[in-house]
Amino acid sequence: MEKKNYEKENDFSSTNEKLTAGLVLYNLKTAIRVLVVMVIVLGIAYPVILTQVGQLTLPFQSGGSIVEFNGEKIGSKLIAQEFDSAKFFHPRPSSDSASTVDPHITPEGAYAQIKNVSEATGIHQNTLRTLLNLNIEQNKLTNAVFFAPQYVNVLEVNIELVNQYPEVYNMSRVSNSN
Length: 178
Fold this sequence. Notes:
60% helix, 7% strand, two-stranded antiparallel ribbon
C-alpha cells in the first residue's frame, strides 16, 4: 500500500512538474509574441505614421524648417548657425547655451551686438534696433502673444539684413525665406 501511495505521489509530482513547465513555456511564448508585436507597433509603425502625418500637415516644420538663400540651403530656423563676419548678429556662445543649438538670443543679447554690427556695416544703430524689435514682435505673434518669451532668431534677422541691404552684404536679395 505504501508503494502505491509513493507511486501516486510520484505520478502527481511528475504531472505537477510537467504542468508547471508547460505553463512557463506557454507564458514565455506569449511574452515573446507580445514583445514582438509591441516592437513592431510602437517601435516601427507609430513613428512612421507620426512622421507621415507631420510631413503632410506641417511640411516646413517636419522637414527641419530649412531656410534657402539663392536656391541654396543655408540653415534652419530651429538650429543655430555660426556667422563669421562682424556684419552679422551672432548666436550666443556655446558656453551660454545648454544645448549649443539654440538659434535664439535674448533681446538684450541682440541689443548688445548693435554697436558692432553698425560699425561693420555702416547701418544706423536705430535702424538695427528697429529690425530687432520687429523680430521680437513677430515671434510674439507666432507664439500666442501672452505666453511668448522674448527672443530674437539670429538667422531671420541676418537674412532680413541681407534683404534690406544687399549692397552692404554684396549678395542678391532673398526672395522668400519660408
